[in-house]
Structures are given as C-alpha cells and as structure tokens.
Amino acid sequence: MMPAALTPKKQPLDLHLFTTVHDLPSNPTDRWLTWLSQAANKGKLWLAVAAVLGTRKGPTRRAALRGMGSLWVSSAMSNGVIKPIFRRVRPVAYPDKPITRTLRRAPRTFSFPSGHSASAAAFATGVALEAPIVGAAIAPIALAVGFSRIRVGVHYPGDVLAGFAIGSSLALASQHWWKVRPTRPAKVRTTQVAPALPEGRGLVIAVNPNSGSANDDTVALIRVALI
Question: What superfamily would CATH give domain 4-176?
C-alpha cells in the first residue's frame, strides 16, 4: 500500500508546489533539464551509464547489473501495476510554457507515480549498494531527472516523490534475492585448543566409510590408536 503522504489525496498541496516550480523564472538549466528528461525515456540514460560501468570487472559491473535489474522491476511496477490503479490525470499543459521546457513527445500514460523517477531512484540505489562512491555520483543526476519531470510540466511533485520511494524500496529489496558482495574480507578464526581428555574418554569420532582406500579399515586403525 502506498504511503498516504505520497498518494493523490494531497492534490491541493501538490498543485501548489507544481505551480511554484512552473512559475520559477526561466534559466539556462531549463534546456538541460528538458534534455535530461527526454534522455531518461525508457531508461536509455541509465542503460548508457550501465554500459560504461560494465566495462570493468568487479563492483562496478555488479553495480550496473543490480542497477538495471532494479530499474526494470520498478518500471514494470510503476507503469504496469500502480498507474492503472490510481489513474491520475497528468497536469494540464500551460499555454505560456517556454519552448525550452517542451518535450518532443507528450506522455500518454497516467501521472501517478512518475516512472522516470522510479527508474532513476532504482538505478541510483542499486548502484550505490554495490559501489557507494559511484552511487553518490549518480544520485544528483537521478534527483535532477525527477525535478525535470515537474519543470517540464508532466508530473506533480507527489508523483515524483512516490516514484523515488518505489524505486529505492525495490532496489533495497533486491538484497533479499541477491546479496550485496561484502567489502571487507571474512575474518579468520584462530585455532581453538580442545581440552585434554584423560585416556581419550568422552571423545566421539565420526568416520566416513566411503573415504580413503577400499582396503583400509579406518575404524580398526582408530581402535588401535586409541583406548
């Protein structure tokens, strides 16, 4: 169940925040945000990042795999399951919206939650689980993708926050099926000295009858060696 704070029931506040972001003065970053919003369509931006990360063996390759896996699951959950349930209509287009904030193709799906935000959060979180430094570098881009969806006028802030929550949660849940590789080597326990047993009394020995040579009577050898 989606948290109440992220559902469309908070539309008055959502609409107010959406209008506030829309009314911010135009600036040079708008063109970049519009490009970023379009680059993230169908996960193309994150697929390119994953391809770069996957060129090197080790944590970055695992990070790319976990990031893309989390992205695909979150995208399917957001677009295929949750959107048809809430069926929230997207914001009404403003007639005075600058061309620098106009997408080449208007989205036709429902608004809640933001699939772009869910995919961005899932990828960034998945990468951070395996490669924290790389994930920290990607996080601002993921946040910018979410903000861009509000700035270009295709999502309410609540849609974006819900997408972030869904994507991050699913990426974190991936550890249940695929454990994160430990960054610290396993500790080697020191040899423990067993207490002495007078004449071997109380000692229990388990023998594997299929080990050793077929001609060896392991039990007989042990009986000779011990009392």
Answer: Phosphatidic acid phosphatase type 2/haloperoxidase (1.20.144.10)
